[in-house]
Amino acid sequence: MLSPEILEYYERGGEHLRLTAGTGRLEFLRTWDVLTRVLPPAPAQVVDVGGATGGYARPLAEAGYDVRVIDPVPDHVAAAGALPGVTAVLGDARQLPEPDASADAVLLLGPLYHLPERADRIAAWREAARVVRPGGVVAGAVISRFASLFDGVVKAYFTEPEFVSIVDRALGDGVHRNAGAQSRWFTSAYFHRPEEPAAEAAEAGLAGARTVGVEGPVWMTGPRLTEFLADERLTAVMLAMLRRVEDEPSLLGASSHLLTIARRPAP
Questions:
Q1: Is 154 exposed, middle or buried (0-12, 13-18, 19+ CB in 10 A)?
Q2: pLDDT tens per residue across span 83-115
Q3: Whole-angstrom Cα distance, residue 127 to residue 74?
Q4: Is 173 a domain residue?
Q5: Of 62, 77, 181, 214, which is least surrounded by CB within 10 A?
Q6: If you write DSSP's letter for every residue of the chain in order, what string do you get?
Q7: Could you report the per-residue pLDDT of 128-160, keeping only the tens digit for each?
Q8: Range of the domain at 99
Q9: The predicted structure's pLDDT at residue 14
Q10: What is the CATH number of the domain that holds 248?
Q11: How far apart are the C-alpha atoms of 6 and 188, rounded to whole Å?
């Protein structure tokens, strides 16, 4: 289901803590802010596809949702399945082991950027549309086409010529190909242009697709972001301001992640 370098990347265990600090914490807070506005009220049934170790499944279950994680990494399934109120199974986003119209919401917060072929991404959106009930919400996360370009400067990766070549290709066709020579760089992935995920969701039969920026350009502020996240008042101000500009077209490409929300048409 996953290429060897992607599986090896996730078997290192980085997903256990990724959303707890720094840019990962901002990603979580902003994604959670959007989810609280678009998900049906608990105790709705949520299928969390590519849910990894339960970074979102845990707070969803704590909020009263009935959560089922589907992930292709065995270690992720074991970790998520051990959480109270969460069930977890191995599975592929392109062929979900779930009945038709069985969930109130489906989250695709992990799989879309590991499907380099557009047909496979459409298949993942279409499977989510099949599993969600009519009128139900589907939310999919993608990585921005320009994220590795910004990473090259912010994290000084451009000092290494191999990373320059990786970014040059990603800017052209969206394919970020890291065969594992540098484990500290993100693994192989597909990086979307801002207009792509909504078009993919629509082609899969979902309606009303809209895309918002998750972190905006704030994720590139380094130590200042850490200072804000350490202060509850400043964090609240930052989140409120990012919410105000989350669908500003001129800022979408500067966000590391984008979140697309759509619904299965009601009969």
A1: middle
A2: 999 999 999 999 999 999 999 999 999 999 999
A3: 21
A4: no
A5: 181
A6: ---HHHHHHHHT-GGGTGGGSHHHHHHHHHHHHHHHHHSPPTT-EEEEET-TTTTTHHHHHHTT-EEEEEES-HHHHHHHHTSTTEEEEE-BTTB-SS-TT-EEEEEESSSGGG--SHHHHHHHHHHHHHHEEEEEEEEEEEEETTHHHHHHHHT-GGGSHHHHHHHHHHHHHSEE---SS-TTS--SEEEE-TTHHHHHHHHTT-EEEEEEESSGGGGGGTHHHHHHHT-HHHHHHHHHHHHHTTT-GGGGGGSSEEEEEEEPPP-
A7: 999 999 999 999 999 999 999 999 999 999 999
A8: 4-145+191-263
A9: 74
A10: 3.40.50.150
A11: 6
Q: What is the mean pLDDT of the chain?
A: 95
Does 181 have pLDDT greater than 60? Answer: no
75 found inside a domain: yes
Is it the case that residue 183 has pLDDT exceeding 80?
Answer: no
CA-CA distance, 98 to 87, in Å (whole number)? 13
Residue 233 belongs to a domain: yes
Residue 82 lies in a domain: yes
Max distance between CA atoms of the chain, in angstroms, equals: 55
